[in-house]
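Teaching assistant's notes for section 4

Start the section by putting this record on the projector. Ask students to predict, before seeing the second block, whether Transketolase will look compact or extended. Collect guesses on the board.
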Amino acid sequence: MKTKELILQSERNRKRLIEIIYKAKAGHIGGDLSCLNVLTALYFDVMNVDAGNPKDNLRDRFILSKGHCVEALYVTLESRGFMAKGILDTLGQYGSILSGHPTIGVPGIEVNTGALGHGLSVGVGIAMAAKMDKRNYKTYVLMGDGEQGEGSIYEAAMAARQYKLDNLVAVIDRNHLQISGDTEDVMGIDDIRDRWTAFGWEVKDMNGDDMEDIIRTFRSIDYANHHPHLLVAHTTKGKGVSFMEGVAKWHHGVPNNEQYELAIREISERIKNLEYN
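Reveal the predicted structure now:
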C-alpha cells in the first residue's frame, strides 16, 4: 500500500473504533488510538498474513501484549478481512466471541493476552520455534510503555538476545500515559534506548503518529543481523481525537453523545479530505 492509502485506512479504522466503543460503552480508547497507526501498518504493509488462510504455517505472527487495547486490533482484523462484518458490532453483548482482551476464539488472534508483561515471552518462544523449524516467518509483539515495569519482559529480552532472534520485532507504544498517570511518575523509562541496547537488542525510534516514518522504520529492519529488534513508537494517547489527545482520563473512557458526534465529525472530515485530495 502507498503511504496515503495506509493513512486513509488508519483513519477509517479510527472512525470504526470510536463507533464500537461508543456502542459497547467500554474500551481502552486512549491506548487504542495511539497504537492504531502501527497496527494498520503491520497488517496492511509489513506482515505476511492472509485472511483467507489465517493458519498458514508461513504466516507472520502478531501478539498484542497490551491486550487491554484489543479494540484497536479488532477493527484492524475486521478491515483486513479476518472478521466477518457484523461480528464487531456484538462487542460488549452477551454471547459475543469478542471480549475485553484478545482470545484465540477470534479469527486472526494467535494468543490469549492481557496479563501485562507476558506477550514478549510468548513472542520469544514463537520466534525460537521458527528458527528451530528453519522457517522464515517473523514475530511481532506490541507492548505498552506502562507495561515496561513488568520484570518478565526483561527475562524475555535476555533470552531473545541469547538465541539471536533477529526474526523477532517488539514495539513499545510510547504514549507516556498509563492508568495511574505519567509513566515517568509511576515507573520511569526515559532510559529505554540505553536499557534495551544493553540487553543486546537493535533499537530504533520512530514517530508512531506518522505513517511514513512507521513504514520507513519497519522497512529498515535487518532480519539477518543476529539481534532482536525493538521499535520505540513515540505516540500520542488518544491520537486523532482532539479532546482526547494527551489526556490521562481517556486511558479507559467512553465518549458521551456530544463527544461521540464531535469525534466522528473530526475523523470523517479527515477521511473526506484524503479521499478527494
